[in-house]
Amino acid sequence: MKKILAFITILSSTLAFSQAVEFKVDETVITTHEVTIDGEKIKYTAETGMQPVWDEQGDPIAGLQFTYYKVGDNKDRPLVISFNGGPGSASVWMHLAYTGPRTLNISDEGFPVQPYGYKENPYSILDVADIVYVNPVNTGHSRPVLDEKGNFDKETFFGVNADIEYLAEWINTFVSRKDKWLAPKYLIGESYGTTRVSGLANELQNSHWMYINGVILVSPTELGIERDGPVEVANRLPYFAAAAWYHDKLTPELQSKPVLELLDEVEYFTIQELIPALTKGGFLDSELRMEMAEKMSYYSGVDESIYLQNNLELPFNAFWKTLKIDDGYTVGRLDSRYLGLDEKEAGTRPDYNSELTSWLHSFTPAINHYLKHELNYQTDLQYNMFGNVYPWERTPNNTGKQLRQAMAQNPSMQVMIQTGLFDGATTYFNAKYTMWHIDESGKMQDRLHFKTYESGHMMYLRRDDLKAANEDLRAFIKNSLPKVNAPIKY
Questions:
Q1: CA distance 31 to 224
Q2: How far is residue 453's CA from residue 457's CA, in Å, rounded to a whole number?
Q3: Per-residue pLDDT tens for 9-27?
Q4: Distant-in-sequence, close-in-space partners of 476: CB < 8 Å, separation ≥ 6
Q5: Distance between CA atoms of 130 and 332, rounded to whole angstroms?
Q6: Where is the signal peptide (predicted)?
Q7: Domain at 8-222+360-479, CATH homologous superfamily
Q8: Does pTM top 0.85 for this prediction?
Q9: Which are the contacts of 259, defined by CB distance < 8 A and separation ≥ 6?
Q10: What CA–CA distance (Å, rounded) separates 421 from 427?
């Protein structure tokens, strides 16, 4: 019998001090709300709180905080299970800015404004699916249960495969408690969350016999698919071109082109000319080396001399530092539309991530206020936007191939990739490369869908892309539902 402890005492540490905080490991709060989506008023309930993770003896070893939105009590209404990344990041980003019924009060281009806060999200997918946002251990308000010495087994939670295993167990419990076994199920992950949900699709199907209708990869990582050497270096250039185009750093000829037309040209050069040239390394003919440097400069707005100084391997940090150096600014890593201000123009990297400081400016006050005042969730635990999940065991990471296996075993499963053109951390071209190599047989091309947006890592912060990306999600869910009573088979 599973033992539900009324209170678990944990140790919450922040920099220079620690304090004992009690939280209920298995308790939630339910509230009722409404939102207008596409002109239709929708009433829904929100449930937020803790659900335990149990060990093999049935004792709770962690409490995971979640927020679950549902419309009515339809047991076969689609369920979307949402994770963010990090791997130590809370689920706040997509929860309060993308798919949920509330979205940040920010500018139309995604920059902070005051007063802080949130507003109705008229583009939420709550009109077509119920949604649960899950915070893994040490993110959000989720915490491990500590022993009498204040310790816990980090290897149970902190690693590619451990993370997938315990979260699959948690999802199984959640689906059973909410009576959603009959519902079509979707996994959505952002950034490292794409690694998480790719592995979860396989784990849920093979260890819990829970089959998934669709997986959405927002700003995906490499998923364990190798691309080292010349391919990794060359794959940077299309992103460099996109960011340079946004900041008007290209020639008038290139600036006059629509960005996707430009990127088709840059991708062709990357695949047909740059990768073969880089493969020759130090034995590349000097004339061809100069030609490559000139062409890379042409497409990126960075002087050819810098490429030659770096043996044609321009580091990302150097690009972020250099692109707008003549204007006195750096550009952001996760979203290169954002500008930073370094103390010195000299150096090899920006002083800070300008986009991340901007996002924390907006998100942190909003999520804390929202949980406490609108969802009525009361706790003394700090909400960890980023939690300590280290050391994190990163190997073996076979999640890309695990996703392929899950797709092979489930003929109806569809996958959609959403990526921002100006994301320099998980670049759009690396996302495309990942898609190309999930299934190298080429037999699943019609089940892999690719969407780009003229923004960055969190494309939904730009209002036009918030609308477009949610419309793409809505269409993906509707189109991936098998026809009633149609056999699911090859």
A1: 40
A2: 10
A3: 333 333 322 336 778 889 9
A4: 214, 216, 414, 416, 449
A5: 34
A6: 1-18
A7: Alpha/Beta hydrolase fold, catalytic domain (3.40.50.1820)
A8: yes
A9: 242, 245, 246, 421, 454
A10: 7
